[in-house]
Specification:
heterodimer, A: FAD/NAD(P)-binding domain, Polyamine Oxidase, Chain A, domain 2, de novo design (two linked rop proteins), 5-stranded parallel sheet, 4-stranded mixed sheet, globular, B: mainly alpha, Cytochrome Bc1 Complex, Chain D, domain 2, two-stranded antiparallel ribbon, 5 helices, 2 strands
Chain lengths: ~550, ~140
């Protein structure tokens, strides 16, 4: 989940009608990064967070009360800030923990998915997997600010590791290639071609004489070309791609240069498709993760509002009239006894998958908006291994390998480097597409078995070192019934503004009510915008 | 989005066979962005069952996936076709990742199993028409 993320995958086919993520992938794959970036900007991705510091809710709410539905980051943001502004707040949460999709699975955790399959996480102490959001871009200013204010310690999340792999089952005999080689050799090969065209005068209509010389120097620098503008085995290309034998000390220590992969082989392998995972704005360095798991953020938020969250509360209806809001909920700790929460106002941060099924007193346009957003499919796998073979054998410290196999990617832990011992890999992460549904439809044990089989094609050590695993298929998650709002352009232009209105005494919040869908930043910004507008209305009334 | 349609269609031609499963008894997984499953039973079991469950009885948490078993709404094949091509509330438009023939197969399968017995089968060309009607 983009809150999960929007990971382009490496596929050979396209659906008859393109979803947004697939569109971006296609644009990125066929036209180039700049065009993809423009599409991403138009679709709401790739924009810097407008957050400019803690909000100020000036003015007296005169004892007004607010019931907040959902203790994810959106709901808790609303609760924390409204309470500070003088409101009486209460939060209803379906789960028995705070955070919602902000969630970490650790050893001993028990998780039951829709359909009843129960998994017990068997990870060793200190090891974990984040089934939902797992990385924070440096430009998501709001969540970074809340982490600072609430004492959540961050560490770098390694998105790009030059020594991780790109893998295609159809290229290089299925042998994984180092990202460093593909990146350097693609850049070198393209630079050599462009230098050739430039020197032949093919670009004379486009490039002035002065710029021509600068361009050639730039291509030599960026592409690691030699003095004759060629990209081939030698000390120039080795400056980017490293050596077949690295330099050492003493006798016989001189380095041996390796031969670059030819441009034809890179192009036809399609491995270049994965390079956009290191170029796109959302994934640029520096990215972060909380020490100990993403769930530390939800736990820290909840500590700000002790005793305000009622857990095990399943909302069943949301009613409003001129004087207030009444939310009926089943008390899951009391055999589902139906109780009521009353307040002057309601901030509803339930996922639209849930809200669209509830009776709710809102206008027809808002109800239509609530019903207009399908939820993306995503599946993640956490696999524990008896040793950190990726570090010990393959010298991969953090980062992500991308593959065209159904698991799509393998991410190596961005923590406890070089310390030996056991480790947990993100053994797969699908986002939309057929494989995501196919994994979801399998029993958890079958999902894990498949993820281990596929992963062994990249890391043969899987066979001997795998110990245990857990998987979370987001369409089977009882508290969301899906990963995140998957807005189409058409739906957003028809419904988004209606979704974000204050409707009588009710306002919605969550990643679905943002232009940063599926990211925690979108959830927080949505909540901040909703309560600022709500507060103005309350103070004015 | 429109300008990319020809490209997308060109890529569909490349639709490949599924990933072979290493275990003999396991179903293959799809390659690319069109489901590789053939026939209503496999499509139901590997796609619809993700949410509606293998027995088509649905599941409930904070909200519910409705059962398709004994579902009176299935009397209308158009209702099912529309759900597949336009989505339905949180349900994604899964027909976008199926051919017309696959859509017809899975609609016919679910309308004749799990206690449903609606004899009016839909054809691939009916699915094609529904796809066009649903397009934004």
């Amino acid at each position: 989940m983009a809150l999960m993320q929007r990971d382009p995958t490496m596929s050979d086919t396209a659906a008859p009608s393109l979803n947004r993520r697939r569109l971006i992938e296609l644009v990125g794959a066929s036209v180039g990064g700049a065009a993809a970036y423009q599409v991403m900007t138009r679709l709401g991705f790739a924009s810097e967070s407008p957050y400019r510091g803690p909000i100020k809710l000036d003015g007296d709410p005169k004892g007004a009360s607010v019931v907040i539905l959902g203790a994810g980051l959106a709901g808790m943001t609303a609760a924390i800030e409204l309470e500070r502004a003088g409101y009486r707040v209460s939060v209803l949460e379906f789960n028995l923990r705070p955070g919602g999709r902000n969630w970490t699975l650790r050893g001993g955790d028990v998780y039951t998915e829709l359909g009843g399959a129960t998994q017990t996480c068997e990870f060793d102490p200190g090891l974990y997997i984040n089934p939902g959001p797992w990385r924070i871009p440096y430009h998501h200013h709001a969540i970074l600010d809340y982490c600072r204010r609430f004492g959540v310690t961050l560490e770098p999340f390694i998105q790009l590791n030059h020594n991780a792999f790109l893998h295609s089952s159809n290229a290089f005999d299925g042998k994984p290639q180092r990202i460093r080689d593909v990146k350097a050799d693609f850049s070198g090969g393209v630079s050599e071609l462009l230098a050739k065209a430039t020197r032949k005068g093919a670009l004379d209509d486009e490039v002035s004489t002065e710029d021509r010389e600068i361009l050639l120097e730039a291509l030599r620098s960026i592409g690691a070309l030699d003095k004759d503008f060629r990209y081939k085995a030698g000390e120039d290309s080795a400056y980017h791609r490293g050596h077949a034998k690295d330099p050492g000390g003493g006798l016989g220590a001189e380095p041996i240069d390796g031969a670059p992969i030819g441009l034809h082989d890179i192009l036809t392998s399609r491995l270049w498709r994965s390079l956009q995972n290191f170029l796109s704005y959302d994934f640029q360095t520096t990215m972060f993760q909380p020490v100990g798991g993403m769930g530390r953020i939800g736990e820290a938020f909840a500590r700000q509002i002790p005793d305000r969250i009622r857990y095990g509360a399943k909302v069943v209806s949301i009613r409003q009239n001129e004087t207030g809001v009444t939310v009926a909920f089943e008390d899951l700790a009391a055999s589902g006894a139906v109780r009521e929460a009353k307040a002057d106002w309601c901030v509803c941060a339930l996922p639209l998958t849930i809200l669209s099924q509830l009776p709710i007193d809102v206008s027809a346009p808002m109800k239509a908006a609530i019903d207009a957003v399908p939820y993306a499919s995503a599946v993640k796998f956490g696999l524990q291994f008896s040793r950190r073979f990726w570090e010990e054998d393959e010298h991969i410290f953090g980062g992500i390998s991308y593959t065209d196999l159904p698991i799509r990617q393998i991410s190596y832990p961005s923590t406890n480097f070089n310390a030996g011992g056991k480790g947990v890999l993100l053994g797969g992460y699908t986002f939309d597409g057929p494989n995501s549904y196919e994994f979801t439809a399998m029993p958890p044990a079958e999902r894990i078995r498949r993820a281990v089989e596929f992963g062994a094609q990249i890391h043969p050590q899987y066979g001997a070192e795998f110990e245990n695993g857990v998987s979370v298929a987001w369409h089977r998650v009882p508290f969301t019934l899906g990963c995140a709002g998957d807005w189409s352009d058409e739906a957003r232009s028809a419904h988004y503004n209606d979704l974000c209105q204050i409707d009588g005494r009710i306002v919605l919040a969550g990643e679905h009510a943002s232009y940063i869908p599926a990211w925690q930043e979108g959830a927080i910004l949505s909540a901040l915008d909703a309560i600022q507008r709500l507060h103005r209305r309350v103070v004015a009334s | 989005m429109r300008l990319l349609a020809p490209l997308a269609l060109a890529l569909i031609v490349l639709a490949a066979v599924g990933w072979a499963a290493l275990a003999d008894d396991a179903a293959p997984m799809s390659r690319g962005w069109v489901f590789g499953e053939r026939g209503g039973a496999d499509l139901f079991g590997n796609v619809c069952a993700a949410c509606h469950q293998p027995d088509a009885k649905g599941a409930a948490g904070a909200a519910a996936y409705p059962p398709l078993a004994g579902d009176k709404k299935l009397v209308s094949a158009d209702f099912v076709l529309t759900a597949l091509f336009k989505g339905l509330r949180g349900m994604p438009p899964l027909g976008d990742m199926m051919t017309d023939g696959q859509v017809a197969d899975v609609v016919n399968y679910v309308r004749t199993h799990f206690g449903n017995s609606y004899p009016d089968a839909v054809s691939a060309s009916q699915a094609a028409t529904a796809r066009k009607t649903a397009a934004p």
